[in-house]
## 1
Amino acid sequence: MSFISVGYFMVIIGTMVLYYLLPKRFRWCILLLMSISFYLTYGIYCLYYIGFTIVSTYAITRAMAVTTQKKTRKRLLLLGLFANFGILVFLKYCNFTIGNLNQLFTVFHIKMHISKLGLLMPLGISFYTFQTMSYLIDIYYQKYEPEKNIFKFALFVSFLPQLLQGPIGRFDKLAPQLFEGNDFEIKNVEYGLQRIAWGLAKKLILADRANVIASAVLHSVSSYSGSQIVAALLLFSIYEYCDFAGGIDVVIGCAELFGIHFDENFRQPYFSKSIGEFWRRWHITLGTWMKDYVFYPFSISKSMARFGKYAKKKFGRKTGRVLPVCLANLLIFFIVGVWHGAAWKYILYGFYNGLIIAVSNLLKPHYEVWAKKCHIRTAAKGWGYVQMLRTFILVNIGWLFDGCKTATDAFIAMKRIVLDFHYHELWDGRFLKLGLAMRDWKILLIATVILLITSIMKERGVHLRDYIAAKPLVIRWAVYLLLVFATAPFGYVGTTTEFMYAQF
Amino acid sequence: MKKKTTWIRAGIFLILVILLDQLLDYVLIQPGLARTIFHESAQGGYDIVAVGASHGSYGIASQELGEELDGRAMNLCMGGEYMYDAYYVLCEALHHNKPKTVILDVDYQYLINQHDESILFNQIYNAYPATFDKFRYFVTKMSKEEYRGVLLRWTNYWQCYKDIKTTIAKKNSQAYKTYDSAVVNMNPYDIYKGDGFIYRKSEYKKVATEGLYWDESKVDANQCKYMKRIVNLCKRNNIQIIFTTVVQDPDSIAKYPEKFQAAHDYIEQLAAQYGVAYLDFNLLTYDRFARKTEDFYDKEGHMYGETAIQFTKVYGEVIGQSLDNTLNLQDYFAQTYKDLYGQS
């Protein structure tokens, strides 16, 4: 059952009714029951994996709580990390490694072939593993006390709306909301439904439509010219954002129905002025996870301190100070790439982003000098737009790794964009007839403009939800009715895809 | 007091949403054939019931089938009827009929198609009579479907806003109330012959729509599960059941006979596992039933009406012999696709 299935919404509504009918102290139980039952609809095998994560992390953190010895605590931490990340890496990368080994055997004419394993990926494993490991590390650092009740802990790991595609929550923020039982507030329901409808509109009106062309072109780049690939890439950027952010809107909206507020995962990412900023606005919870649990520990580690000293001696103070940060960024984005999937294209995608950020950090002092020499007022609005455009182009180049089938295809696409760019091929009819009717193109265009306007408003600090909520009843209801019904006439009808990140 | 008003407002809004949704359903959704077919089936008295998908609905002429099998035949094959749909369609039919024979026509495409265009295929559920089975149908199938197909059923019809007047008039007409197929919006080249059979006129120009080719890795285990449930349902009710596959465009088969052979082998194996006979009429020899690409209105293999009538005579005859255990397969069928269609 996906986020757009009737069953999902019925489970959420049914649970919501029961949640508010039950006494406060039992409300978390119904959330746990809902989460586990829903997860079971994907197959019992999913439960083994998530069950292992719950039990092992619970046992380890309880053991940490009764141990005073630092060494033992560290060993327990490593055991927990190794076991849980081990499963994730094994499931995601086992067949990828076997495939690469087989290719190596062929290259070196070794008569050996390893068969791939029939592994099934439990849904949401990346999200719940990251969320649980943040808890494990926090307990190690004694940020808060470990949860004593295993069932409550199980709810933290498996809470349904976020289980499938995040956002990656933190225990100290989520636990009180999950366990204490929230009062019914009509505002939560109103805002929650608003958010769900907005997310569905993003997915069904924009993402699914944009995906038709984007996947048609990017999945066979050799058949299309550079101009067509660029146009498809722009559609892919709409698809990627609307699919992921739309899914997160549904998740956040569903949680709001229970009075639970998640951290935001997106903040108008395409308005970023640098790739670094982009990653602070895109999949924010993953970014902060990486910052807190990889970047900082790595940057302040003894070996990095030694490297920093060495770099300062060798390259001077300024560069020497930046180099460890660059290395940490490269590591983070390598992990982000690996996290995205078992393929070289994702590893290159991560490396591409890490490299840009590392180079930007290294060249930052020089940028300022160049800007002065060229008489550019870096504080001017116009320069800000140039930076946005530059970042958007860089982000889109990165999307090629994500959108194309293989890394080789991504390079072919780049080559075609540079060497085989013909504007007229956009208008000769072929591109426009790749799977969308003229009506679909019109809806896509208008919906994109609406999304752009709302994003600009948000960027300028206008809280659209409060803005609508403050309007007279008739206007408010008209907007809500439009939101509820919009996906029927304007949503894409055809091959609807599952939310992209629900498969992580 | 304020809280009370808020609740009342929320309630009114919810009612407004439901009313508006129902209104849009009423004025936009076109009367469909499934409603008429269910009504006919509910009248009872059928001895033979066929379930399956569109190949069956265009390919099995109920009257001719009944004549060949000495009884009244009802063709409950409908476009978009997956195995789980077929199961519930059969459940509904068994409430009103005591058939001796059930024919499950298997179009292998439905075993490998992951049902991704979900909201296009909800006509059967929507027309299904409001019974407890409909609730079960909802839980097992529709709950997994996209919400628009169930909660905003008019999604597929919203472009019919120009015909609102006609739709309302139709729904208020006597013909609609008596389930007459005359009110159904059908392809102008189709004639509904009754008892579930759609006769497509040969004036309809052949279209190039091709079917899906067999890929065992894509088999949906859930479809097979429901095939088994259909078999068990029949066994529980002491009904003879037989699996068939109606003939398709020979030119399309000749392109990839090995793929059709693989599909055949898979279904045959399933049938054997469930203890049911399987008759694949694509293996029917040409001397028993001569056919050419012009007899089918698309490359996927849906039959024109006249072909269907001729075919059903042979179809009924063979099924009859199979049920009587007098069928000698070699008299009618080639052994393999390669024998009949050559190699691709």
## 2
Amino acid sequence: MNALTLTLKQTPAYAINCSGLTPNLLASKSVAEIADIQLSYGNSLVSVGELFEITGSDAQHIVFKNASDKLDYIGANMTSGKITVAGNAGAYLGFNLKNGEIHCQGNTEAFAACNMVSGLLRIDGNTSDFLGAGSEGLRKGMRGGTVIVKGNAGDRVGDQMRRGLILIEGNVGDYCGSRMIAGTIGVLGNLGAYTAFNMHRGTLLLTQLPKLHATIQDCGSHTLPFLSLLFKSLTQYNTRFSALNTQRVQRFVGDAAYKGNGEVLILATKG
Amino acid sequence: MLINGIQIDDTFAEAFNMRGTRVIITAQNLKWAYHAANAMTGFATSVIGCGVEAGIERELSTEETPDGRPGVSILMFAMGSKVLMQQLETRMGQCILTCPTAAAFSGIDGEDKINLGKNLRYFGDGFQTSKLIDGRRYWRIPVMDGEFLTEETTGMVRAIGGGNFLILATSQPAALAAAETAIEAMKQVPNVIMPFPGGVVRSGSKVGSKYKTMFASTNDAFCPTLKGATNTELSPEIESVMEIVIDGLTFDDVALSMKVGIEAICNLGANSGVKRISAGNYGGKLGPHLFKLHDILNGNKS
């Protein structure tokens, strides 16, 4: 069986909510039934058949072709299977993702991995602000799973993140790890201002020392044995992080303004 | 049965159900892994007085340990899950947490999970950090040499304790030399430990005593100095008896270990001074598992 492929017929003018198009929701549906599903498009409803050309039948692997940044909520609440986005994705990619894998081959808008619970989200391009954060009003962000970004990320990466792993091979914007509760964020590139702002707990694993504010305190250079376990676990992913092997880090702890016990680890050598 | 001039008694070892766990101890080098493991398995020869029976199962190479450092695996057995949990936590706290560079990891999966470092984390006084890596939770506890790393839990499985055999020889040095030979061979068998000093016990016991407060006492039938004074099991030429006790994860593990040990002794031949191999048979008073010596040596499962 070929992957169920949804090819966008033309670039949409308004945002499309794709949360109804996940492997678990489409598992028992025929192509005709899928074509009849109504999606919100701007302030109206439009059927899948009008927006997408549908080919293939294996709903366990859904492919969005000609994908555009208007496709919001791809893979939302997904519990199994795989989604490939050939192109860009809109906001809230992998929203509340519970299991399975999402692979975006292009860029995404803001709030990717928002409220994510488990599973794997891979983004080959860049992503915007609030990666792995919580949706508005929630006190907790991402609660588990793994996010791998090959490109850059915007501001507020891991805002209020509670658990899980975010790996960014490129640069990130301001306020990385802000209000972070737990979990691990790795960044191989540069970071903007206010890194670890109001960080409670959790780990920022960096290769370059960003400009840290006064309430992130230097605890000196150390050899941390847990890093060998972490790096070993990363070898299963296709990422530059899997080449890291040093356990030697400079450790900063904060944010003291919040009596925080979060840590910013600067790896001694580049991976 | 006669092997290489050594008589194998038609008897059986009697063993009982236990709860067991395995812990992997790593350190900067093997020397410190052994310091930690020896402390953790110290005073753990018999459940009668120590709560648990524990020993070092084997050395682990850097490829076999979770953190890529040299290490050893420890097996620990107790009569019940409660005692095992309590002893494991106490020994972790006093022997592994305290040992420079040592780290502890789960060495076995089981339906039941028992605490390894789960409660030790409070030693961190709020500075402790948890990391969930590949579905396993670890605790990082700041200590004066750096950071103590431990997995949160390890598995607990049903196990078998008290497998044994007796070495009957014409002299004490001959009995001990044969026991040492057997232990060296048995150390190569996985999933078992021989918990007594050097793997050998000289004070084998029988069930019961003439004293009301004692529920075990010296096995007088195998004491050579009592040959004329008690209902002895020993022939006149036997002057010393050594026992090897085995705890293992399964019946087959214990049986294999006994087979390997007895065969190693038989390879020494009767000229070594060993005349007989027997076993601790308590007439069904001790436990449900019977390790019949002849069946084990013939490769039959009892």
